[in-house]
Amino acid sequence: MAPPTLRQRRRAAATQEILDAAERHLTEHGPAALSLRAVARSLDMTVQALYHYFPSRDALVTVLITRAYDDLADAVRAAVDSPTRDADLPGLVVAAEGYRRWAVAHPERFQLLYGTPLRDYAAPADGPTTQATRRMSAIFERELFAGFTAAQLAAARVPALSPALRAHLERLPHYGQGYLPAPATALLLGAWGHLHGLVVLEVFGHTSFLGEQQDDVFRMAMRHLLEDLHRRITPA
User: Fold this and answer.
1) Rounded Cα distance, 217 and 169, in Å
2) Of 43, 67, 76, 150, which sees the most CB atoms within 10 A?
3) For residues 113 and 61, is the Cβ–Cβ distance under 8 A?
4) What is the pTM of this model?
């Protein structure tokens, strides 16, 4: 491939500057206050000049969400792959703690991903935001079900699934283990809800009464979650 031209390099640098300014504005004022006008003002640009790089607020938001998901997935991956991680700690717990640390350290970006939806914004169908979430999904699927066969996962003990729900779960895409039987997908969704719910409570300040014990409480909850889930899967 030919090296980028001077014009392309300048455009890339300007785009990066705009994104950095947007993320600073997001951190200072929260997702709801994000606008092209505010970002342009912080860079001493006109909105019309900003349109040359991002034709709409939605285009800017899509890139910001994608970057946040990528950074979150990188943090989870780094936690799992760390050479200094506790070898006795299950991979799912390590991944969950990496997820939690990023969310607590970047509450405004976490709110952009999982807080109140931005008015009139809709992510592009199967676009970059979807691609970014798949990286993280693959990590959690692998750490949750590593070592189990498809037959074991299909026989997992879960509450009875209605035919309609089973059919829907069978059609959902997966990115870690490949195909997942419906019972395993049901377990995955339940585990995700539990994990994510605890992180949301902490990010929004609802578990501050636990003080410094939040680390221990979260680790205990993730251990119990994993143990309960694995008890539902018959050993080989």
Assistant:
1) 31
2) 76
3) no
4) 0.90
- Contact 40/53 with Cβ under 8 angstroms? no
Tens digit of pLDDT for each residue in 71-128? 999 999 999 999 999 989 999 999 999 999 999 999 999 999 998 888 888 888 778 8
What is the residue type of 115?
G
Residue where the block lists tokens 């991680």? 85
Which residue do the tokens 């995955």 mark? Answer: 188
The three-class DSSP label of residue 222 is helix
How confident is the model over 29-48, as pLDDT tens digits?
989 888 899 999 999 999 99
157 falls in which pLDDT band (50, 70, 90)?
Answer: very high
Residue among 165, 170, 158 at smallest CA distance from 234? 158
Ordered domains of the chain (ranges, CATH): 1-55 (1.10.10), 58-231 (1.10.357.10)
Instruction: Give one DSSP letter per residue of 110-177, joined into a string.
Output: HHHHHSSPPTT--PPTTSHHHHHHHHHHHHHHHHHHTT--HHHHHT---SPPPHHHHHHHHHS--SSS
Amino acid symbol at 167: A
Task: Record the tokens describing residue 188, joined without a space.
Answer: 């995955």
Token pair, residue 196, equals: 């994510």
